[in-house]
Amino acid sequence: MHMLGYRSIKKNNKVDLYLSDKYDVLNDISDNYQCIEQVEGECVMKNFEKYERQYFMPPEVTYDWVKKEYVDHPPIWCSVDLRDGNQALIEPMSLEEKLEFFQLLVDIGFKEIEVGFPAASETEYQFMRTLIEKDMIPEDVTVQVLTQAREHIIKKTFEAVKGAPHAVIHLYNSTSVAQREQVFKKTKEQIMKIAVDGAKLLKELADETEGNFTFQYSPESFPGTEVDYAVDVCNAVLDVWKPSAENKAIINIPTTVENAMPHVFACQLEYVHKHLNYWDNVILCLHPHNDRGSGVATPEMGMLAGADRIEGTLFGNGERTGNVDIITLAMNMYSHGVDPGLDFSNMGEIREKYEQLTRMHVYERQPYAGDLVFTAFSGSHQDAIAKGMSWKDDGKSGKWTVPYLPIDPQDVGRSHDSDVIRINSQSGKGGVNYILKQSYGINLPEKMREEVGYLVKDVSDKAHKELTPDWVYQIFSDNYVNTKPVFHIDECHFKQVDGITAETTINHGGEAHVITAMGNGRLDAVSNAIKQYFNISYELTFYEEHSLTKGSSSKAVAYVGIICNGKVLWGVGIDADIISASIEALTVAVNKIEAIGSSDTCKDARMIEILNYIQANYIDITLDDLSEKFFLSKPYLSKYIKEKSGMTFGDLVKKIRMKKARALLKSSNMTVENIALSVGYQNVEHFNRLFKKAYNMTPMQFRNQK
After folding, report:
1. In the predicted model, what is the mean pLDDT of residues 236-251?
2. How high is the pLDDT of residue 634?
């Protein structure tokens, strides 16, 4: 159908349907006229006039159930998987499969299980007999069988349940207006007689048959039955059975074909609840279906209205749209802090067994059980979940309050790292970091997450695929851990004398070069060695470290961020030694500077020797000393240094002295005067001027800055 903007406007100022406000408001509407303005094309679904509400409101409508906030205790659960669920299968279960399914239900914790309709087929009959004869029914489990209110079927049913330790005999006949008029062509009185005669026969045969029996009655097709009439039929049946405290009866109200909103059903049920005879000795049961998609809401409101027993199936299997999904009902209670009395902690195994035995598929969005119900692909959702997990891990809440996750996935056997956050092109920085943290112990610095997130998203977008955790880590590793295309550092040796001096072996172009440089710490010294070797400039702006939270607890991870020409470059190192990890991270970051790939300066072995010598003798070195050491004339040496380093000899020495001074200002308590002397300046005022010119602040300002 072509659905474009239109309005439906009804009398009494009630607006039934409103679509787009871009169309002019209808004018001159008659008080008793329903008007539909069709703006473009055919947009009205035809034939709605042939339908009407087929439910009946009770004679007296009360809303006491509305005053209850939530379901505060579990009902008596009765699984009807082996009857209602099985009869809806394209290929019903075999005897062996039904036995296996029965055990599954017992393991989950069901104490009441409807095992079948023994008179319907030989398999159903033999299943009941096998359970009894092989003593397969646990002492605390009650089996239930279904029978129509027909004599031969009732008799066959009692043959099947003979010797049962405890069985519910579930009697039903249809009571709706449509069934009375169209199918049975009987009056109300005649329909009631069918129910009463069936009830009498159950009582007679129970007295004659070995076993322990409880009676249950259902006015089938209740949704299309006058509520007061349904109550009358139920009371007529109860008058036959005369339930007692020792032998209670079950009255089951089915939404055989759901036809009303859940609140209507709750009002109907509340009327039933208040008008049934023998109330203290009656268990009020519900058997909801899902024809209107309200299969869960209906029993939840029904329990508020007085129901204390629920019949349903795993994953909502059953006729047409299915029965109520007991898993969803139970887990809804669980999410409110109520023990449901059933165990779904191994949801994956339950689902696998269910799919195997029924040959049905559990939808990926099935509440609590589907593959994707705990999964977030959206970046904002992932970020919120990751922060919520961190909040929980920090112990800020003793209750589960993680955004977008109604329960902890681990409580139903799911995993935080593979089920909750999954990565595709819609994911965000928080999700990528969560995957890396949960699966590999990598907790990215906040400032790094956006870049990594966009990188991973881009890969997913181009591949048009979801990325596995291993794939995410591979992308991360390839770009931030293992990328050293230009150089790597073989080893470092440190000396601590008024700061740190590093002898760094840089492997570049297949050759090893030892570079000596100073710094205010080990990493700074290595960084200065790299700058010196490649004749480059960058700012070491970010450093963070932590121990790995997964895998080897003896390893640490370091994150280094540098700024070169206004661009932030990141590197990551992983090693048992935190210094080695830090150097690895720095190396990766510097390898991303484009200039080092084409640098020739660093390849000159003589220049490396000269720089190392200046580093070792910077306090009082002169050009004469250098000329004598390397057997080069002063004019040639001056030109050579300028050509290779881009600085004069004097500027080069001054730069090395200033770096040493910076290190001492940060790492020692020496006075500025003594620092000036230690780096080669007799005049402190001259030193101060040089320092301020180099760093745009005085030595004391540098020392005092945070």
Report:
1. 97
2. 87
Closest by CA to 306, choosing from 268, 339, 258, is 268
Task: Strands of 420-510 (E only): list them.
Answer: 487-496, 500-508
As a whole number of angstroms, the distance between CA 244 and CA 238 comes to 10
How far is 6 from 42, CA to CA, in rounded Å? 11
Instruction: Please report the pLDDT score of residue 467 as a whole number.
Output: 86
Alpha carbons 287 and 253: distance in angstroms, whole number: 6
Are 234 and 282 in contact, with CB atoms under 8 Å apart?
A: no
Residue 144, classed as helix, strand or coil, is strand
Q: What is the pLDDT of residue 16?
A: 42
Least confident segment among 223-237, 338-352, 533-547: 533-547
Q: What is the DSSP letter of 506?
A: E
**What's the average model confidence in pLDDT over 456-479?**
90
Positive or negative CA dihedral for 456, 462, 463, 466? positive
Q: What is the crossing angle of helices 227-241 and 188-208, to 10°?
A: 30
- What is the rounded CA–CA span in Å between residue 418 and residue 255? 39
Q: Which two tokens stand for residue 275?
A: 């008008």
| Percent of the chain whose pLDDT exceeds 70 | 92
pLDDT of residue 655: 87
- What pLDDT sits at residue 263? 97
Residue 2 has pLDDT above 80, yes or no: no
Tokens of 59: 């004679």
Q: Which of 400, 404, 380 is closest to 391 using CA atoms? A: 400
CA–CA gap between residue 17 and residue 80 (Å, rounded): 40
Homologous superfamily of the 623-704 domain (CATH): Homeodomain-like (1.10.10.60)
User: In the predicted model, what is the mean pLDDT of residues 352-363?
Assistant: 96
Instruction: Tell whether the model's pLDDT for residue 10 goes beyond 50.
Output: no
CA 466 – CA 469 distance, rounded (Å): 10
Whether 327 and 368 have beta carbons less than 8 Å apart is answered as yes
> 615 and 655 in contact (C-beta within 8 Å)?
no
Q: Which two tokens mark 558?
A: 């370091």
Which CATH superfamily hosts domain 64-358? Aldolase class I (3.20.20.70)
**Count of residues for the chain?**
706
Lowest mean pLDDT among 276-285, 446-455, 634-643: 634-643
User: Which tokens go with 443?
Assistant: 């907790």
Answer whether CATH 3.30.160.270 is correct for domain 487-603: yes
Q: Cα(449)–Cα(455) distance, rounded to whole angstroms? A: 10
What is the amino acid identity at position 244? S
- 349 token code pair: 């195994």
Q: Which residue ranges make up each domain of the chain?
A: 1-51, 64-358, 379-465, 487-603, 623-704
Select the more confidently predicted residue: 25 or 636: 636
Judged by DSSP in three states, 7 sits in: strand
Average pLDDT of the segment spanning 614-625? 86
Least confident stretch, 7-21, 34-48, 466-480: 7-21
Tokens representing residue 628 in the block: 């004598």
**Per the structure block, which two tokens stand in for 584?**
């690895």
Q: How far apart are CA 203 and CA 194, in angstroms?
A: 14
